Every structure is written in C-alpha cells, then in structure tokens.
Amino acid sequence: MNWSNKRVMKWLMLVCALALLVPLAVVGCTKPSPPSEEPIVIGGSLPLTGVFAETAKWIEKGYRYWAEDINAKGGLLGRPVELIIYDDASSVEKAVTLLEKAITVDKVDLLLGGYPGTACVAQMPVAEKYGMAYISMGGHMPSFEQGYKYSFGSPPLMGQWWAEGLGPYLETLPKEERPKSAAIITMNNVIGESCRESIVNWMNKLDISILVDEYYDLPLASADALVSKCKESGAEAMFANGFLADGALTVRSMKALKYNPKLLFQSVGCLVPAWVEELGEDANYVFSGTGLHHKLPYPEVQRLNAVAKEKWDIDYAPDYFLFGCCWMQTLQCGVEGAGSLDNTAIKDYLHTHEISLIHGKFTFDEKGLPPSYTYLTQVLNGEVELVWPPEVASTKAVYPKPAWAE
C-alpha cells in the first residue's frame, strides 16, 4: 500500500471511529430513567360473599382506601403498595387456606387482617407460625390469651368488652328504672359466646335476673320460637347476640309477636348501613357497642366522613370502613417505626411504642391489646349515634324503648 492509500485508509478509520463515538456520546448525555420500585405486597382474605359479606365489604373499602391514600402520598417506605384480597366466602377453612396461600405462594411482604372473629381465631396461629404481623379485630379474648406475639387488636372488636359501654350507662339510671330481668339469645360461635360473657358479667353486677339464656345455630331460619320464649318470660331487657341477617329476623319477630322490652341490645350487625335499609323505622332504639365511630371528635375521623361522602355519597363513614382504615394505619405505624418490612421488627416496635391512630394514641400490652374500652351506640332516627360516655356522646340515649311503630 502506497503512502496515498495509507492516508486514505487512516482517514476512513477516523471517520468510522467518530461515527461510532457520536451515538455513544449522545447516550451518555441522556439521563437514565430511575429504576421503578417494586411494590410492597400486602395480602389476606375477607368474607366478600356469604353471611358476613355486608360488614366485610366496608372493611375492604377501608383497606383499599388506605392503599390509595398512601400511594398518593409516595407509598410506604417510598414504595407503592399493592393489595391481594381473596374472598374466603365466610368460610373459616378457606380463610386459613387463603392466608397460607398469600404467605407461601404469593410471598406477600405483609398480612391483611381477616374478619370476623371466627376467621381470626383460625388465622392468628397461622400468622404466628410464619412470624408475620397480623392486625385485625382479633379472635376475642381466648385468642389473645394464647401467647401470640405477632397479633394485635387495633382496635379489637372484643366481645368480652361489648357491654362495657352499656353497663356504666345503666349504672347512672336510678335502680328502680333499670330493667329488672333480661333474656339473652346467642349465635353458637366464638363471637356470640364472647359477647354473651360481657353481658352476663354486667347483668350480675347490676343484679338483673337472666330469665332466658338460649343459643342458636347459623343460619337462623326463624326467630319466632326464641322470641316467644323471651316474651313469655317477661324479660325487660332483650340481648340478641347475632349478625345482620339473624338480628333483622329477631327484630321482625319481636314486632310481629308484640314483644317490646324496655331495652334492646344487638351485639353485631346494627352498625352497618344495611341495618336501617333492612328494617326501616324498626331499626331504631337498638343499643350496641363499638371501638370506633364516625362522630368521635377527631379530625381524621371527620376527614374520613368526607371521603365516604365523596366516594359513596353517604353522609358518614360506616364504622367498619373506619376499622379497616385503622387496622392498616396500625400496620403502617409498625412498618414506618421499624423502618423496614422485617415482621419481627414491626412486631417489636408495636409492642414497645405508643402509636397515633385516627381516634387517639394507643399502646399494646403483651397480649397485643390496648387498654379495654367500648363506646355505647344507639340507632336513632335511622343513624347510629354515640350515647356513652358523655364526653364523646353525639346525643342522649332513648330509654325505655318506645312502642313499635305501626
């Protein structure tokens, strides 16, 4: 190759090299996109169909709203949150199977609490087995006495506390005005038995005689036989420890049989909007208990009322929507306090720190429970009102119960 050819060849090589470098330079000057964060996956089950679905659908709304809200604020630990909510069809067996699936197959980072207490009784030992924080209503006192370290009731729907609002209210009445006798009908499961325990304790304390104390199995086809027995006893207070469907049956039977005691207490079921939708005027004057309520004087509760109005065009946040939000908020406090998704660190943080929730500040004892409390509610004019204690009451209780509307 002569000098001229060599010169041409060098020139061509230089051009080729520059041609290769220019795209690389352009790429190098372009700011790379940041890697997308993997979502934090939180999973579990709720009874979205079956006998407990009417209540559980509001818990699900609470779970999903919490996820939507925290993602809008930048996520949990800076990562987006993704929920896996299986339908256990109100079956305890499915609730256990689906929680195991969430842990072992889906490999979720965190758990969603289940509902109702019958499911929680079975799910709490699963959470303990896998060392994962489990925050829900809980499985009532017997479950919290098993020594579990990873389960928290925040707030719990503790049957053993259910009459802790009614009892002190009745104590304020002159003794001659209190009911002198009571009838109790109870669904035959851990929830009913737990609520019954609280009622019996207070009836004994107030020297109110228990004339009827009957159990029934779910589903309840008719309440007529049970209500007839209560009416015939002449009991002045009626306690129905059941859910929405059997509770509504009981009220209809009481009206049909013209049984109108001075006091009617429904343990579960009358706190959801469907209670009034089902019963109309007959839904009124029923007492119950709760650990959360839309008229509590806390800014975050009032904000959630506005959320319910915006999203579902209802005037207030149903209690079980608030429960769902609060259980997720507790999990959030544990994660952010621990600064990680390590479930042991989350558990340890919740056991040793005070946390701020939508209705105040709370601590947990070695059982995973806050100090005992229950607010007394009563359905009045188609709305669930707070009637005790006085410092949070939205109105005064109506007692004795007026006659059934014609």
Can you walk me through this structure?
- The chain has 406 residues and is α/β, with parallel strands linked by helices.
- The protein is 43% helix and 17% strand.
- The protein has helices at residues 3-29, 53-72, 92-104, 117-130, 140-144, 166-172, 190-205, 224-233, 244-256, 273-279, 299-312, 319-338, 343-352, and strands spanning 40-46, 81-87, 110-111, 134-136, 151-153, 181-187, 209-216, 237-241, 263-266, 286-290, 355-357, 360-362, 375-380, 383-388.
- α2 (53-72) crosses α12 (319-338) and α9 (244-256) runs parallel beside α10 (273-279).
- It is globular, with a radius of gyration of 28 Å.
- The termini are far apart.
Q: How do the strands and helices of this protein lay out in sequence?
A:
Blueprint: H1 3-29, E1 40-46, H2 53-72, E2 81-87, H3 92-104, E3 110-111, H4 117-130, E4 134-136, H5 140-144, E5 151-153, H6 166-172, E6 181-187, H7 190-205, E7 209-216, H8 224-233, E8 237-241, H9 244-256, E9 263-266, H10 273-279, E10 286-290, H11 299-312, H12 319-338, H13 343-352, E11 355-357, E12 360-362, E13 375-380, E14 383-388
Parallel strand pairs: 1-2, 1-3, 4-5, 6-7, 6-8, 8-9, 9-10
Antiparallel strand pairs: 10-13, 11-12, 13-14
Helix pairs in contact: 2-12, 3-4, 9-10, 12-13
